[in-house]
User: Fold this.
Amino acid sequence: GQQLNQSPQSMFIQEGEDVSMNCTSSSIFNTWLWYKQDPGEGPVLLIALYKAGELTSNGRLTAQFGITRKDSFLNISASIPSDVGIYFCAGLAGNTGKLIFGQGTTLQVKP
Amino acid sequence: EPEVTQTPSHQVTQMGQEVILRCVPISNHLYFYWYRQILGQKVEFLVSFYNNEISEKSEIFDDQFSVERPDGSNFTLKIRSTKLEDSAMYFCASGQGYQETQYFGPGTRLLVL
Assistant:
């Protein structure tokens, strides 16, 4: 079945550093999404990507949708302690709204 | 800002018992979803629901699972006879269209003993 592979699995960085994580797939997705999940809560949408090659920013976050529609990256600049959480990529599969999620990247930020 | 709500936040049940997890999606949304997340793992799709019927379900969503939108505001997930492996966080989500942003609720943590 369709799978998304995220890397790295976890990151431990110093406050102020930039972060980069990515997501790859063997299948094409027409929409890629990046979600953040805080402990004990539901995923919250950070950025949605709809066009191949699209580069989109949301504050300190920047994400790009790969030209092949099989990969995406998320960058966080100047990290702060509240960036701590699990970041998931997700691809929209088919025409029913089904989202396929990656395994997540756990980010820890040291003040 | 409108949000998806879920009740209860936590539920503990005995194996073999029926549970009903409740969700109130955002009011003008037409597409509804259930996902689950086993502790420490990724979020997995269970089912999508549109126009009062299931539009897609995963392999996880077997005969023990059912969904219902009984009154135009609530969206429920029923597990008929719970198993130990049903222990997970269950998230409801809703969206205006299938390509539109899905908004997730805070989840119900289900523990089957």
About this structure: Chain A is about 0% helix and 55% strand. The mean pLDDT of chain A is 93. The longest strand of chain A covers residues 85-93.
